[in-house]
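User: Fold this, then the next.

Assistant: Folding the first:
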Amino acid sequence: MKEFEKFLRSPFFNNHSTIVNLFCELKKYHPEFENEKFTREYLFSAVGTKKKYDDRLFRKYLSRMYKLAEEYLSILNLRSSGISNDVTVMNEFIMRDLKEVYSKKLNELKRSLLLTTKIDDENLLLLYRFYLTQYNFESEKSLEKSNNDLLLNALFHLEGFFLFNSFAIINQIISNNYSYKNSPEIEPILKDYSVSGIEDFLKKIKRFPSGSNKKLILMMELLLNAFKMISSEKSYAAYTKLKKLINSNLKDLSPGLLYYILQNMNVFCILSKMGGEINLDKELFENYKILIDNNIFNSGDNVNITLLDFRHILNTALKSNEPDWAENFVKNNSKRLTDVYGPNILYFANALLLFHKSKYNESLNYILKIKNEPFSISYDIYIMKIKIFYYQGYLDSSRYVAESLRHFISGNNKIADSLKSTFMNFIKYYKKILQSRIKKDNESLKRIYSSLEKSKNTREKIWMMKIISEQLA
């Protein structure tokens, strides 16, 4: 509020004292803006005009203030844009034929862009503008050189920016297909985007003799393996390659790029487990730990931690036998979510932590406190209750909750069929386990275990194999 008032008082931006007076009056009622005096008529009279209230004129004042607020936000953004702003200034120097200051700024930017700036997709766009600006200046200075190397660098970085962002969107669409129903016309469109497009671009930039392309090459290798990981048969090899690239270049990657790549890796870990192909809980935990340790969730590039991330981090920490780390994580991060979702998140977290310690009654007490839970933790609550009742020997109650989960899943039309099948397979196997346990039919349990080993797309597969082993021991 103080900064905006300074902005309004600057004659460069605003030369209407009426607007300043109106703002100063509005400020008195900030932030609630509630008072019996707080009326249009009162505000109109308070700005210093002696005219009778004129609604059209008053709305004009407010509209003017709104436009100035937009301009103020734009300037704040410009201040924080750093190098992007410097490239704009370079263009202004060229337009004014200020060759000396342009050259000085150019050398500053070379050091920033090519040596110190972290690798990021936005950086590609900046480099495109940088090389194009440099080409325009050099071409005007001398007509004897083509300066095609500058143009090619501009082209490569623009193409790299396009490829990276295009395939980032495609990756997200492919990932969404596992959780949500998709419209049939999307699949044919996705087929037009393939790994070969990135591979061809990589070959092209590797042939170009310029050290400035090292960061671009690394970005394209990250993108190539992120896309292969989601869309090709060699997905685990791509995951392993990504892990090596991140470990060897961690300090050079921007928070935004690190967040994007690691979250793609996390999706792969989650989908691999859902499909029953390979259990990557430990890998998932380590990936999230990198994001937490580097404060990526709270960086300026990304929003705070989401409920889905919170849930995955907590689950994988406990499955990786890191209860102390998990408790510390809840303590330090639950506040971000309770502000949005209320105390339900803390109840859920405590229920999970207590369940891990085999304190089933205390865990159930926290579950019972949860009212109108967010959809993304509903599955966990059902499965936790199923397991608690199983361990307590309340097999009928456990079966009843499993049946309730079946109705919850089958009745939801927004969930993708592939995701539904993982839960339906879990319920099918679990009911068979309960039946065989009640009948004390060990032979049947052995057959279920053997079938589970071969099964794919089955939720809680490892847990069910564990309780069968315990029953047979």
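Now the next one, as you asked:
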Amino acid sequence: MGVKGYIMQIQPFSVNDGEGIRTNIFMAGCPLRCRWCSNPEGFEQRELVGWYERRCIGCGACAAVCPQGISVDMNADGHESCIACGACVSACPEEARTRMASLMDADDVIKEVHRHRLFYSYSGGGVTFSGGEATSQPEFLDCLSRELYDSGYSIDLESCGYFDFERVRPSLERMDLIFMDLKHMDPELHRKYTGVSNELILENIARLGTLRHPDEGSDSGNGKSPEIVIRIPVIGGVNNSEENIAASAAYVHEVLPEARMELLPYHSLGRIKYEAIGLPFDQEDFYTPDKAEMKKLRSIAAAQGVVIADYR
């Protein structure tokens, strides 16, 4: 096929990101820098090797094969010099060195998806594109989504919503379900915590209602619409105020009356990834809302007329 892109992980047997059993394709690159991000290895579009110090036994096998002369302690001198050749990954007996993003050919991605086709058929599942941000590689996403759509797979997308809508419209219209994040209604607070304002995201959420599946054998776009779920990652201390949740739900109900909403509590499970790639974990200000608070916030959203979804 010849089209290549940067993949963080191809994760089979997922049940939280769409209907049935799914394979999640995590694509690297993201225009946002959310301070609570749990996948920092997906910030950039590049090959990346990480080091899990807690697994390391200090045997020196990695250093012995490294063409850059990087020592066992990758955090001391290695992340900037690493060319992600993977020699240390193959040499490490404890998997302390690991590939966190790789350049892959679309054909190889499709072959990996095909391996689990039986599970999709029996469960009503399929494939979900995630990230990073899948739309940050528009040509790669177009190629993969077209091949999978033409092969009859159910395909979904998880997106931060910050993209050129018309550039990725063909990919969006192939989706059965689109999850799009709405992180904050205040544009300045959105910029403070993610690095960008929310204007483009709000505009793109509204434009989701214009999508139509392509007719078989054409790109006329006269078929049914993809299902839409607007997700709020609820970050304690950032966007968990009742006013913000109510305003978010009111906006969604106004511009996409048929869309559902899902509220997901913050977690800090990405901490180990920050350690692996030598980045500081700057999330001490945040907390996870408890079950009672999440229940209340979901009821506030529902009071605005939206239907609450739950894929967890």
